[in-house]
Design a protein that fits this description.
The chain is mostly helical. It folds into two domains: 62 residues; 169 residues, no CATH class. It has a two-stranded antiparallel sheet with strand order 1-2. α1 runs antiparallel to α2, α5 packs across α12 and α11 packs across α12. The N and C termini lie far apart (88 Å).
Length: 307
């Protein structure tokens, strides 16, 4: 047998043994994990193909003489023979396509072990146990749970004291500030009720100054500060005339109509966690990774600290 083939076979065997030892002797080993098995199979295939392709072309350079009909094209005097497609190349190309289709339709991860799938299953089981264990928790215990969740998930943006870190995020120690109220009046809100978006009319709609507007620029400033001051001070008459139809005269909102502007409520916070929020600061994403009880707890905690 040609020395090239012997050397190639030895090299392949050595690489396979080293790969097997590297994976098999590591912590966890193969552990029935199809990802590791596919990695080993892929490594063996790549090494084998690479070695024998190299051997083929080395032998060809040593022994073959160029013959055949030249194509019409040439590049700087270098021509190309009209040779047929190499059988081995064509077979490997087709096998690669077959393997790719198998991988995406039958192999990993559609019909086999998946670390992401296992994580999702474990999370679902944990959440189910969590819901059963804490379904009846209320009062101070619920607030304590909400504080723990807040510190784990929310403090990065809102700060340990929920003060918004100098405007990086909303200050949750009070319901609204004047700038946020003004932004909503002028741009609308994405607050959602019953799963559908309920945008607040913008100034080109209900508050259109060009059509005998219900509210002027000066009145927007006044009513924004009125709401931000906890529904007190100058601007009560403007609020009653322009806002109370949806938010109520006390600003505490109406069920299925508009949110509470006077204070936080657990339901309001849960709504924001479920759907996210757009405001003057930017966009807050929704928090799908929190389960229902955790969201309720965060709502209870924010309601408690904002009193």
């Amino acid at each position: 047998m040609n020395k090239l083939y012997i050397g190639g076979a030895i090299f392949i065997a050595l690489m396979v043994v080293l790969t097997y030892l590297s994976v098999g002797t590591s912590k966890g080993g193969f552990n029935g994990d199809i990802v590791n098995m596919l990695a080993i199979a892929g490594a063996i295939a790549l090494v084998t193909i690479t070695v024998f392709v190299v051997i083929k072309y080395v032998r060809q350079m040593q022994q073959d003489n160029a013959t055949g009909e030249l194509a019409n094209e040439s590049w700087d005097g270098i021509g190309e023979y009209k040779n047929s497609l190499p059988t081995g190349w064509a077979v490997m190309f087709l096998l690669t396509m077959v393997w790719g289709m198998w991988y995406w339709t039958i192999g990993y991860p559609v019909n086999a072990y998946s670390q992401i799938g296992e994580y999702n299953e474990d999370t679902a089981v944990h959440n189910a146990k969590f819901e059963v264990k804490y379904k009846d928790i209320t009062g101070d215990r619920l607030v304590e749970m909400g504080e723990s969740v807040f510190l784990a998930e929310c403090k990065v943006c809102h700060g340990i004291n929920a003060d918004g870190i100098d405007g990086k995020a909303a200050n949750l120690n009070h319901r609204l500030d004047a700038a946020s109220v003004k932004h909503v009046i002028e741009n609308g809100s994405n607050y959602q009720l019953l799963g559908s978006e309920m945008p607040m009319p913008d100034r080109n709609g209900l508050f259109n100054n060009n059509t005998g507007a219900l509210i002027t620029d000066a009145e927007i400033e006044v009513v924004s500060h009125f709401v931000a001051n906890g529904m007190s001070g100058e601007g009560a008459d403007i609020f009653i005339g322009a806002c109370s139809a949806c938010h109520g005269e006390d600003g505490k909102g109406m069920e299925y109509v508009a949110p509470n502007l006077a204070s936080f409520t657990p339901a309001l916070v849960v709504n924001v966690l479920n759907h996210g929020k757009k405001g003057i600061i930017g966009v807050m994403p929704k928090f799908d990774r929190l389960n229902d009880k955790q969201k309720e707890a965060v709502g209870a905690y924010i309601t408690d600290i904002s009193k």
